[in-house]
Every structure is written in structure tokens, then in C-alpha cells.
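note to self: dont lose this again. the chain is below, predicted strucutre after it. 260 aa total, dont forget to put it in the shared folder this time
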Amino acid sequence: MTAEIGMTGSSWFERFFLAGGPIVWFVLLPMSAAMAALGLDLGVRVRRKSLLPAGRAAQIAALAGRYGLSVLENRLKNASDFLSCAMVRALSAGRRKGFEMSLMREAVSDSLRQQGLSLLRRAEGCHLIGTAAPMVGLFGTVFGMIQAFTILGSSGGQPRPDQLAESISVALVTTFWGLLTAIPALFLHGFFRNRIETLVSQACVEMEGLLDRLAEMGCFRDITNGIRRENPAAPSVPQDSSRAEEEEESPVELEFEAEE
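---
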């Protein structure tokens, strides 16, 4: 019984690995491994728990109400979720351009778009593998059939069965591995693409509500007033009233002296 299992296992290994030749060994199998690695990486990265955790908007609003927006940016700069990164981007833009709601919304939209595109570029690796793998399998099929017809022609129509079977095996096994690699890769691409787009859309909705909540709390007004106090546009210099009167009267005295 054990011997039969070993022979069967060896037979499957020979049929679906060795029979494919270098096209399977050095091209399709590495592509399959890369597809699996990309799928695991995206599975770890594209999670609601890490990108859009529940209650994150309420936590940011509570931090803003407790510490203010000036401290909030430092507390969120090391976070990696959608809302924290978008909030840091909005606060950074607000310091440069002014804490207007339209500018804040634009900065949030840009941040979420960039985060979504960064994840989509990773998912595009699965799409590339899923598109290229069938072509590689088709190349192996054509190569195997060319070998088979070459053997038929050189043997005068009576080829050796083992030689013909070897060429046909290359054709079929490469097609098998091409499809086996492409189907999961395309599935992963579609799955993660839809998930990323859904999370980004939900993050946009939550950020809209968060900005409105911060505006109602007066956080933007407070930090704007604080910036104006720290960097006044036209600082006023106190002057003595007597000195001011002298400066006002001096032109008149000069006029009288000129008339004399």
C-alpha cells in the first residue's frame, strides 16, 4: 500500500511538474509563487481593522477636543490608517494655506486618493500575473506542438510513443500551469480592488463627518486665532500719548516756521 502511494505521488510529480519542462520550472512556478506572495501581502495590508478601524473618527475628534489641533498632528503622524493620514495631510495643508473648510476637504480628498492608488498599484501586480500567465502557457503549448509535429515529420509518420508523449506533455502541462496561475491572480486582483475602493469611499464619508464635527467644536477657529496671535500680520508697537501728540503737532510747527 505504501509503495503504491509513493509511486502515485511520484507519477503526479512527474506529470504536473517535470513534464512541463523549463517553461514551468523557471517561469510559471515563480509567477505562481509571486502571485501567492502578493495575495498574502494584500491580505495583511487591506484589512478594515488596519485601514479603517471602527470608532477612529470619534477617537480623532476626542483627541482634538482634548489637546487641540496643534498637538493632534504630532499624535497622528505615526498612524497608518486612512483617517489619520488624511487628517495629518489636512492639518499640514491648513498651516500653509489657512484652515478653510474647502481647502481641508481638498487635502483630505488628495490624501485618500493617494493612499488608495498606492494599494491599487500593489494589486495591479496580481493583474499583471493573471494576464501574462495564460500567454506563457500558450507559448508552452505552441512550443510542445511544434516539437510533436517535428517528431512526426522526422520519423516518417511513425514516431516513438514516448517521444511524442513528451512533447504533448509539455504542451498540456504548460497550459495547465498557466491557467492555474492566472485564475487565482485575476480573482485576487478583482477582490482586493473592490475592497480598496469600498474602504476609500467609506473613509471619504467618515472624513466629511469628522471635519464637520471639528468645525462645530470650533477647533479650526481656535487654531486659526492661535496662529494669528503667534504670527500677527501687522504687529502694533505701543507709543506714549505725549510722543504721539508731539509727532502730530510737529508738522504744524514746521509749517509755521516755514511761513516766518
